[in-house]
Structure formats: C-alpha cells, structure tokens
Amino acid sequence: MSATDAQNAALHLENLVLEGGWVVGPPNRFDGDHTGGAFSVTYIATRGDGSQGFLKVLDLAQALASDDLVDTLSGLTAEFRAERNLCEMCGTKRLSRVVTAITHGEVKVPNFVIGTVPYIIFELATHDVRVALGRAEQIDTVVKLEYAHSLATGVRQLHQIGVAHQDIKPSNILVFPKSANRAVGKIGDLGRAYREDVDSPHDHLLVPGDRSYAPPEQQYRHQFDDPATRRFAADLYQLGSLITFMFTGRTMNTFITINLARHHRSAFYGDSYQSVIPYLDEAYENALQRIESELPPVIADRLARLIRYLCEPDAALRGHPAARQQPDGSNFSLERTVAELDLLVRIAARQAQQ
Amino acid sequence: MTLQPIEDDREVVPRWRSYSDAKSSVELAPLRQAHLVAAEKELGPLRAQYSSSHDAFVIADYLGALIAYQVDQRTIEPVAHALAAVSEEGSVLWGFARQAIQLSDDASPDQLEPASIDAHARLQLRALRHVIRRSPRRATFHVDAALAHATLGNRKSANREARIALELAPTNRFVVRSAARLLISQDEPDEAAWILRHFGSYASDPWVLAPLMSAMQLAGEKPTEFRAARELSALGNHSAADLAELWAEMATIELGAGKTKAARGLFRSSLQNPNDNVVAQAEWASKAGGFTLSEADLSVERGYEARSRAFAREAKWSQSVIEGQAWQRDEPFSLEPALSTSYIAALVLEDYQKALDVASSGLNFHPKDPTLRNNAAFAAAKLGDTEKAREHLRHAGHAAGSDERNAMVATRGLIAFRDGQPAVGRALYTQAVNEFRRAGNADMSVLASSLWALEELRIQSPIALNARDAAQEDFARAQLPEAKVLVNRVEAAFSSAESAEL
C-alpha cells in the first residue's frame, strides 16, 4: 500500500457506519460481480434489518495521480454529481428496471489526509448478467428473453424521461431475484448517461461509453447533428448488441468485426463513417445470418428481426419499422420492442411447456 | 478463321469483382489509415474479471472486446482456448472460441471452383435475391446482383441494379467504380465518365480519378484531368499502392502522346506497389514503351490478364489459355478475355470445344460482338456443327473493321467446306486472302491461307498446294508467332499426307 493509499479514507471504510445505519463491509475485489468505474471504490453495505446495498465511493486520491489535477478533479466531481442526481431522479420516477440509488451522502473519516468521501448506495444485485448466464445450471431461452425484456424495459424507461444510458454493456446489466416468477434484470451504472434537460460531463465526448461496445457511428468517429440520433439511436444499437450477446456470447461489434475486411475495421479505417456504411452493411447481413442460425429455432426469425432493426449500422435508419413510419413520435421508440420481447417470452414459455 | 483482339486501346478501367472478392483488395482500402489501440482503462477491468473468473460469458465478453479492439492474435488465442475449455462442445460459445482461434486465417472464403461461369452466376443471383428482398437498402448486394446479371447477359437488369446501388451509396468507391465499369463494358465510356465525375470524389481519390481519366480517353475526350492527376499524385500524400492505377493511366496517356520516356517513368512508379490491373496495363504497354516486366510483377495476385498476355507474347500458348480462362472467370462480363482466349484456343491449340465455351460465355454480355461471334462460329464449324456456326454469324453485329469482315468471310469459307461445298468455300477463302493482301496484312493472310490449305488437304483437293504456297509466300512478312504455328502445321499435314500416299 502506497503512502497516498494509507491516507486515503475511500480505501478504509470497512466497519464504518454511514447515515441511515449502513455498515460498510470489506471492499470488493474485482470479482466480476460489479463494476465501479476507474475513479471509484466499491463495498457491500448492510443495514440492521439485513438489507444490503452496493456502496460506490468516489476515490479522489486517484485524481492526485493525474497529470492535470484541477481538470481531473473537477471532471470527477461533476461526473459523480451527475450520476447521483440522475439516480435520484430515476428513484423518484420509480423506474423498475433501472438500478436506483437508495441513498447518497458524504462521510468524514477522521485521521486521514483525504478524509471526506462522497458516496452513493445502490440496490444490490445478485450478479451481472454474464455471471448469471454462465453460472446457472440451465439458463433457458425463456430466462434469456426475460432478461432481454427487462433490459429493453429499462432502456425504454430511461428514454421516456429523456435519458440515454450510452454505456449499455454486459457488466452493466445486473440480475436480481425473480419477481412474479420472472427473471429480473436492471440497467446499472448511469455514470455515462445523457440527459435532455441538463448538461452532462460526457456530452462533448465522441464515444461516451466503452469503445468496444460503442455503435458504428461512434467507432468510426461520426457525430450526428441530431441529438436523438446521436444518443438514443446509440442505446438501441447497444440494446440489440447485448441481446445478441446473451444468446450467442458475442456482441454485434464482435460479429461485425469478424465479417469486415481488416482494413475496414474501425481500428484501421480512417475515412468517413458514410464511406464505410456499405461495407458495414455487408458485414452486418452476414453477421445476422450467422446470428439467426445460432438463435433458438422457436424464436429465431422474430428475434433476428428485432436485432436487425435495433443494430442497423446506419444510425439514421435504426428503430422499429413501424415507429419509423409514425409522423409523430420518435424513430427510436422502444414501445414495440418491449411488446415484441414480451410476446417472445410467452411463445418460448409455451413451447417449453409442450 | 478466328481473330485476335486489337490491342491499341487498353486503358486502366477498374476491375469489377464481387464484393466478397474485392473487399480485402487495396482498391477498397481507406485513403486514411487509423491506428487505434485498445484502451487500457476499458480492457483492464475485463481482463481482471477474466483472470478471476471461470464464467464462460465473462470470458466471452473479454474475448469479444479483444476482437473488437483488433488486438494481436497472440493475445486473442489463449482467451479463446480458455473459452473453449469451459464451453460445452458444439455450443454457441464453443463455436465462438473456435472461430476466434481461426481468425488468423483472415476469414478468406472458400474458393470453390464453379461448375461453370453461368451456373455460378445463377446461384449467386438466387442468393442475392433472397438477401435483397430482406434488406433492400444494402448497396454492395445490388452491385453484386448487377455483376451476376452482367455475367448472364441481362444488361437491363444489371443496369437497374447498378442504378439502385448508386442511389443508395452514391459516393462509395466500390459502387462508383463498379457502375463505371459496367458502362464501359457496354461501350458507354462517356456515361461512365459522367458517373465518376458526379458521384465519386475524384478530386481527392486517385482510385476514382484514374478510371475517370480512362473513361474520358475511351470516350475520345481530351485528358483535361491530367494536371489534377499530377497534383494529386504529388501533393495528395497518398501511398504508392493508392496511386498505382493513376500513374498507370497517366503513363498510358503519355505513351499515346508519344512521350515514351515520361511514360516509362510513370509506369516504373506504378509498379512500385501495383495491383493486377496496373501490371496488366504495364504488360500491354511494355512493347511500345520499351521495357520489360519482372517475374515478380507478373506473379501479382489475380494477375491473370497480364500473365495471359505475356505467355501469348512468348508463344506459351497453353499457359496463356489457362490464364485466359482464369481471367474470364475473374471478369466474366468482359469481352477481352473471351476474345483472346477463344482465339488462341481455337487457332493455335486446336481446342475448339474450349474455344467455343469461352466464346459462348463472353457472348452472354456481348451477344452481337462480330469478332467474338466469328470466333465462336469458327470453333463450331471445326467441331462439325455448321448450323450453329452459321447461327453465330447471323447474330453477329456490324463489323466495323476490314480485318473483322475478312475474317468472317474466311469463316464462311470454312463452313462451306465443312458443308461439302468446296467451290463456295474456295471462293470465300480466296476473297479473304486477297482482301488481307490488299490491306497489306501479311499475318492475317498467312493465317487465312493456312486454314484454307488445311481444308483443301482434308478433302484431298489438288488446290491445297496453291493455298499452301500462298501461305508460305506471305509468311516472310508475317510477325505474329501464331503465323509460324500455322505454317508449320500446314507443312506437317502435307508431310503426313505425302507419307500416307507413299
């Protein structure tokens, strides 16, 4: 442990009692159950009634190691504040498929140089979706579809309040105990989210989330003028990509990369996004063909159709075909997608019972 | 008799291959390269989770990110093996792991030898129709459909598909070059130039400027873009590979203007990092330009045309035909491989069935080409199918050149001989030989006389000697290596006939 770490209270919160009676447990190792982010430390916190929460604290000490202390510090606090406010809003709006904050605050820990630690306590998930998919004895089609339905519902709930998540990836989909006999997943980590009503710290970034999960327009460094296309269409892509991952173990980006010629892959292609679209289109069709062949036969056709319109490489063409034909409303509305996934759950469940 | 294509007007017109064949080629590489490296802050957490987890989907997530970030295959493979180890054999994750392990093979599609060019095109078209019905907005599929239609000779459909592709992706290089090539193959170079000028970004893209200049040359326009080409090659900061076609076309224009030294320099530049089209252009120009190509140049990938031409120049006929057939499979809608390959196969190798097959494939897209019809008629007549031979000549369009017209007269002579009308055949051959002589074309005269002599000998006519003498008389002034092949053949046939008499 470095001298800085020894003086950093964020790393020494174990056994501390926070406001509301939350007792902080040992810090999380990076065990794959949760992601905290580059500038945060996470713990499990427990209350007297036995309920548990996921504690995320801001690690201000890491800013000290940066080359530009002032900007890094101000960026960090802005991000933390934005996430905290957004989580608060999601809680207020009662979004059932978004991981919400139970409480937040600041704790002052005596005898540390960096002794003030801002924190947020979230509801605690069982696992992230990758672990759930991998560990369960038999994750069947129905359960996967229920996760997909939860995820689509969560994204729709966010979009309905003018929020785009911008970083939907497997580690951010958290699994909770079954509710009403259905598997429940929720979207976590709103640290990269965009809000229509308030400026967010990541608004200026071309790729707000992880690049390896980013939609093609971000991978190929293109920024649409229309904020809806820039933000909400990106969520649709990541939603479709994650559904693909749940059924095939590969995101859409992995499929597309494999099907592209090497010099057309985003890591090497320096020309414009518009010029690469026909090449992406071809790779995408091949990818869809492969994906459909790997989906459970009972829903393959319908689910492939759903993935197709969610992950369309040209963001301007993304979205449910019927939504795109509506004179009013958003091209990127997820109402029909959620309904279609609900139907698929029922079809798969009926088939499983036969 | 068959006729070889006139070689005085080759330009650097773009190749047109199916997208799956073309996508890895340098023609479709971006002008600007990116070198994005994997971000440690993104891969780091996934690696940490991978290191501490045996969960298959956690490993798959990390493996997918490694692939998306295009990290080195040596990093990918151990992760793929780890995924295979925790996955059930035959499961989707196991399939993913196997796929990732094989990525170093760079996903080159299986090269299946089609049963025939037409059958392959029909299969392609059937598959494309299915895809296009499902996804009508994918430009590359429409280009591929246009190519399949062109291969099968459906010009109208080919043009319709190319137009749709242009509407969908008007600035895409693959689409624009393919559409231009289709028009050039239909003898509409002015239309091709219009498309390249209005849709392609020719001012900044040498891969569009080169075919634009070629199309303008073929359309008989002045090379007004030459200055732009010089500036682009000097100031555009493009690689030698990106400039190769442009340099080759500039060299061709200089050569046409009699500036041989300048042309040689430009050809030398174009051969620094050439594609097969550039090598073919240089091979075509090598005689007039006074330079030779190296073995390495000729071994360029898909360099069928260059090798076919080079082998023919060296009188290596069988190899030339093999390369010519590969050239035709590569560009089935193109007239040139059909002409040159059917010519050599029939006239030199006496492989009339092969000649007829090659010519027939070429006729799909060029049904009225008089030279190709004539070559097909010659091969059919030699095979004894004079009805088919006459039909080919009936469908031949107007022959603009006197050589073509005279070759057809000679072929009619052959048909008459094979129909048992030697007097008619004799008259037609005589007419053809006289016309070739009048035009001072000793090569053609030798070829026509030799073929005539062989027909007279076949029916044991005393006039065979006259025809042979005519061929030998003109042979002194002939230059084509195939003239020698035919004169030798005639001499061998006469020797053999004399031996038989004895």
Q: Which two chains form the greatest contact, residue counts included?
A: A-B, 53 and 60 residues
Q: Class of the domain at 322-501 in chain B, according to the CATH hierarchy?
A: Mainly Alpha
Please identify the structural class of chain B as seen in this structure.
mainly alpha
CA(first)-CA(last) distance of chain B = 31 Å
**Which percent bin holds the helix content of chain B?**
55-70%
Calculate the terminal CA-CA distance of chain A, rounded to whole Å: 59 Å
Mean pLDDT of chain A: 89
Structural class of chain A: alpha+beta
Strand order of the largest sheet of chain A: 1-2-3-4-6-5
Describe this structure in words.
Chain A has helices at residues 3-6, 61-64, 69-92, 129-135, 141-160, 216-219, 227-248, 252-259, 273-294, 300-310, 321-325, 335-353, and strands spanning 17-18, 22-27, 40-46, 52-58, 101-108, 116-123, 127-128, 163-164, 173-179, 182-187, 194-195. Chain A is an alpha+beta fold and 354 residues long. Chain A folds into two domains: 3-123, 2-Layer Sandwich (Phosphorylase Kinase, domain 1); 127-353, Transferase(Phosphotransferase) domain 1 (Transferase(Phosphotransferase), domain 1). The longest helix of chain A is centred in the first third of the chain and has 24 residues, at 69-92. Chain A is globular and about 60 Å long. The relative contact order of chain A is 0.10. Chain B is an all-alpha fold and 502 residues long. Among the domains of chain B are: 40-105; 322-501, Serine Threonine Protein Phosphatase 5, Tetratricopeptide repeat. Chain B has helices at residues 19-22, 40-51, 56-68, 73-86, 92-101, 117-134, 139-152, 155-168, 173-185, 189-198, 206-218, 226-235, 240-256, 260-270, 276-289, 295-298, 304-313, 317-330, 335-348, 352-365, 370-382, 386-395, 402-418, 422-438, 442-458, 464-475, 481-501. In chain B, α19 (335-348) packs parallel to α21 (370-382). Chain B is 70% helix and 0% strand. Chain B contains 27 helices and no strands.
